[in-house]
Write a structure and sequence with these properties.
The structure is a single chain. The chain has a domain of 102 residues: Tetratricopeptide repeat domain (Serine Threonine Protein Phosphatase 5, Tetratricopeptide repeat), CATH 1.25.40. It has eleven helices and no strands. The longest helix has 22 residues. With 212 residues, it is mostly helical. Helix 7 packs parallel to helix 9.
Length: 212
Amino acid sequence: MLAARLEPLATFPITNAGIALARAGRAREAIDFFKRAEMLGEATTILYDNMANAQRQAGMLEEAAASYRKSLAIRETDVALNNLGECLAALGKAEQARECFLSALKLRPSAPVYNNLALAELEMKNYSKAERWLRKALASGDRFRADQLFTLEYNMSRALAGQKRMGEASDHARKALQLADAGYGPPPDSAPIRELTAMVSGRGDSSTSSRQ
């Protein structure tokens, strides 16, 4: 029994090595360390959250979603729920993603989760719901970086355009473009900037998306 109790502790250096590799951008090597720790008996939220993050970094979204679920089976946190939702959204599973974001909000409301909910609603063409979540994000009291404000203004323009409220959409598109011109958005030739420019000129749609 004593050996069984000590075994998880023996895996912590392996997990820590994996974390260091992931931070250095060596995601696939990190994943090997995390899997080794799991095979040796470690089953902690720290292990599974970091394994999932590395798997996302490596583009392994299905595997990342499975790892986040393992973490959530141990303990539910708003961070893991939000991250799982982002994975599911990237996999095109907007409805499942929305449920994760709603669960995350119950634990801790935050502007990034509101924005992610808005993106899920935009994906399902629920434009008025997307607008509601974005307004909650803006009213959350969170302090936003300029690039985050770009994201919110961009997504708000899409939500309003989807409701055919083109005057309001154009106003938010202009704000987003001003932030982009100041260096807080994507490159000038990117799809979001082209979309925003078209929206300001009255030719816009809401076909793309942006996460904080």
